[in-house]
Write a structure and sequence with these properties.
Number of domains: 1
Structural class: alpha/beta
Shape: elongated
Number of helices: 5
Helix content: 40-55%
Strand content: 15-25%
CATH architecture: 2-Layer Sandwich
Order of helices and strands: EHEHEEHEHH
CATH topology: Transcription Regulator spoIIAA
Number of strands: 5
């Protein structure tokens, strides 16, 4: 299994969903089917990066024929990964907006009048 230092591909700041998609594209273009992804040199990671990384490579990686093992996960990356894993299996809440009414206000005065009326 090939070990890949993710910072050599994306840098030490993993900030965006686009970066995660770029990494998945890199793995596909390099015909990687098994990889040990090393996070030990990562300085920071965002939840959005980890969410996309999880969705593309860990949750759906089997459909892409890519098997991923993670190493060197720092506290921040590990916490975001666990959070993403938990929320990816919980059912989505559907908001009932049947009683919602949209108000089209053109001026600040109309807004003030409307706000006074709902007190």
């Amino acid at each position: 299994m090939k070990t890949i230092d993710i910072t050599t591909i994306l840098g030490a700041e993993l900030k965006s969903r686009t970066s995660a998609r770029d990494f998945a594209t890199y793995l596909r273009n390099m015909n990687v089917t098994e990889a040990c992804v090393d996070f030990s040199r990562v300085n920071s990671v965002t939840r959005s990066f980890m969410d996309e990384f999880y969705q593309l490579l860990l949750k759906n990686g089997r459909s892409l024929d890519i098997s991923i093992v993670l190493t060197g996960m720092g506290e921040q990356a590990d916490a975001f990964l666990k959070s993403v894993e938990r929320t990816s299996v919980s059912p989505r809440r559907v908001v009932d907006n049947s009683n919602v009414r949209f108000v089209n206000l053109q001026t600040v005065e109309q807004l003030s009048e409307y706000l006074e009326s709902i007190r």
